[in-house]
Design goal:
Elements lengths: L2 H7 L3 E3 L5 E3 L7 E6 L48 H22 L2 H10 L2 E7 L9 H10 L4 E4 L9 H10 L4 E4 L11 H12 L3 E5 L13 H8 L3 H5 L11 E4 L6 H10 L4 E3 L5 H11 L4 E2 L9 H11 L4 H16 L1
Parallel strand pairs: 3-4, 4-5, 6-7, 7-8, 8-9, 9-10
Antiparallel strand pairs: 1-2
The structure holds zinc ion (ZN).
Length: 342
């Protein structure tokens, strides 16, 4: 199948002049994208977001022959996939590096604003992504400062940062609306105290916290090595969901990607923790419908993970899932995010 053939079959999708997915919708929509990135607020080298003519690679998007939009992650799964031996660990790490590299290259203002206008998106929440060694929060704040009508900034502070508390207060004062983190249990060496302290510091300044949550669950234990298994499980939903027990009930925690393949578990945590939300990037129309049925529409938020993924794909999934529910659509696309960002 070609991309052309795919969009012909899919309601709400078309291709733009670059051959990338764009939304196909006649009416008006109000949309905030709660999960995006930009060149200079990512790890690796800093690239000036003013650069022009950079190609968008969408590094997390599967090729057309491997695309299956009916499942989260939109990728045809092979239940017998094998990830044994050192090579698979190396491949996994190189792939992670390539994803960031492509995001840094493609995540420029030029590409960002083009995608916003093609997809009727009024604002992107730009999530900084910091590591222990490199804090990208000031860069995210800078881009939001340069384009306050189009971008909102989340800071990112690593739990092992010695100035964690001071920084969170400072970034709040500088205009950050929340904090984003991608961290693994391996990186924390199983000691969650620093992360809990960080979440509590965020609660004190009334920050929303969005964490990358979820992993691919189709790979079987017997088909992996010990190390690969640990890597695959290192961001699973329960690692972070269990920490919510340590925090007040009204703590505003957002499950990034709705846990990818673990969206049903995310629904269970949302039921237990009334302050928590699920952000929908890479989910399918069916999984979004499932979440609406289980937890209602007032704690689900549209996010795309642009430029790792096109904004149009998750957006078209939300439109499909809410075809007969205009109120749910308005909340998921905009109202819930607006409430959190107020
Ligand atoms: Zn992301």
């Amino acid at each position: 199948m070609t991309k052309q053939e795919l969009v012909k079959k899919e309601k709400y999708l078309k291709l733009n002049d670059d051959g990338d997915y764009a939304i196909d919708y006649d009416g008006e929509l109000e949309i905030i994208d709660f999960h995006t990135h930009i060149s200079n607020a990512l790890p690796l080298k800093i690239i000036d977001p003013n650069k022009k003519g950079r190609k968008l690679e969408y590094p997390t998007l599967p090729s057309v022959d491997k695309t299956d939009l009916s499942v989260p992650y939109w990728t045809k799964l092979d239940p017998n996939e094998k990830n044994k031996g050192l090579m698979s660990v190396i491949k996994f790490s190189l792939n992670g590096y390539k994803i960031f590299n492509d995001m840094v290259k493609g995540g420029t203002y030029d590409n960002c604003f083009k995608s916003q206008s093609e997809n009727m998106i009024k604002k992107n929440v730009v999530l900084a992504l910091s590591t222990k060694k490199s804090d990208r929060s000031m860069e995210a704040l800078r881009v939001a400062n340069e384009h306050p009508d189009k971008l909102v900034a989340f800071c990112s502070v690593h739990p092992h940062d010695p100035e964690m508390k001071e920084k969170i207060k400072k970034y709040k004062e500088l205009g950050a609306k929340g904090l984003k983190l991608k961290v693994t249990d391996m990186e924390l060496k199983g000691d969650f105290k620093p992360l809990i302290d960080l979440l509590k510091a965020c609660y004190e300044v009334n920050f929303n916290v969005l964490l990358h949550t979820g992993s691919l669950t189709h790979i079987k234990r017997r088909n992996t090595s010990d190390l690969m298994w640990k890597l695959l499980k290192s961001t699973r939903v329960e690692v972070f969901g269990e920490l919510l027990k340590e925090l007040p009930k009204d703590f505003k925690f957002v499950f990034g990607h709705s846990g990818i393949a673990e969206y049903k578990l995310v629904a269970e945590y949302l039921k237990k923790h009334p302050g928590s939300y699920a952000e929908l990037s890479c989910q399918s129309a069916d999984s979004i419908k499932y979440l609406i049925d289980e937890v209602g529409y007032e704690r689900l938020i549209f996010g795309s993970d642009w430029p790792a993924l096109p904004q149009a794909l998750t957006l078209s999934r939300v439109l499909l899932a809410t075809e007969n529910n205009k109120v749910a659509r308005e909340h998921i696309l905009c109202k819930n995010a607006e409430r959190l960002l107020r």
